[in-house]
Amino acid sequence: HKGMDPLPEPPCHQFAAVMEYINGLRKIDDMVTITINKSDQSKESCQTMWDVFERSRLARSNLIRKCITAQENLIHELKDQSKGAKGIRTAEQKRLSIWKSELEVEDILKKRATKRFTEKCRGFYPDANTEEDDL
Fold first, then answer.
1. What would you report as the CA-atom Rg of the chain, rounded to the nearest whole angstrom?
2. Which of 28, 59, 64, 135 has the most CB atoms less than 10 A away?
């Protein structure tokens, strides 16, 4: 587990660094998909690969949610400031839209991965409780 931990996550205000971090974690999903597509897997290897996928997915989703909250707070603060901040606020609202889109991408990736695991790991079903983090 520890050997697979990613680098520390960057702060949300470093947009490019956060996106690079998220894309790096998505590469983990790609490696899991390639591995799982190679052949039928044992229940143990399916469980291990699912665990790797879930840790990566949860790290991304949690970071994106944290950045959405930080972005909403920033926009609220800008609204409290003078009207001179309108241009900045508009740019920050666009960034908020990007974060929300990234969360939608995560949902799509999770659905695809769940389908792939169900197809390739016959008899192995991902933990039904993983939906809770999406609330």
1. 18
2. 64
